[in-house]
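Quick review question:
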């Protein structure tokens, strides 16, 4: 692997940033789970579709998600310090698109229940209730670190996002 285009030090990296379209194309080739992150503030549910989600630690169980700094959900989570992670099923593309748009009507006609101040969407592949233990600045996004307090996984295949399209992952025998 050639590293001739990589900066030698962190200080020089500021001078040699990859173009936004190149970075976007690179990241489109990385399959990501599609999740809807939620919270409940003053009885009102908030949520948004997120593909920047990952496990962070097993001991203690921690996850991380990245939210746009201008997100209504981020503003609500800063107050509640709670978030739900809803990992979508392969047939929930419309739900992902619904929560990806702006506006206050994302929960209209969407079934959900209150799980420790974290809206749990119906029929998702997996769900986790988290306490937000830290929020870290990350450019135009904020990285939320969540301590997983409860969770459940259901049978089915996850919805993934790869090369700007929804799909799923099928395990192959090794």
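Suggested answer, residue by residue:
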């Amino acid at each position: 692997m050639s590293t001739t285009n990589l900066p030698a030090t962190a200080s020089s990296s500021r001078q040699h940033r990859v173009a936004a379209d190149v970075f976007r194309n690179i990241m489109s080739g990385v399959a990501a789970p599609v999740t809807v992150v939620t919270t409940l503030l003053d009885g009102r549910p908030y949520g948004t579709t997120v593909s920047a989600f990952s496990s962070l630690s097993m001991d203690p169980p921690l996850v991380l998600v990245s939210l746009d700094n201008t997100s209504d959900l981020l503003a609500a989570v800063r107050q509640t310090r709670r978030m739900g992670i809803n990992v979508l099923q392969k047939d929930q593309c419309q739900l992902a698109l619904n929560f990806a748009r702006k506006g206050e009507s994302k929960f209209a006609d969407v079934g959900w229940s209150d799980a420790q101040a974290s809206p749990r969407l119906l029929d998702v592949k997996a769900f986790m209730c988290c306490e937000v233990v830290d929020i870290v600045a990350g450019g135009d996004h904020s990285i939320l670190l969540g301590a997983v307090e409860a969770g459940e996984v259901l049978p089915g295949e996850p919805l993934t996002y790869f090369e700007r399209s929804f799909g799923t992952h099928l395990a192959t025998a090794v």
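Why it works: The chain has a mean pLDDT of 86. The helical segments are 10-13, 20-28, 72-80, 93-100.
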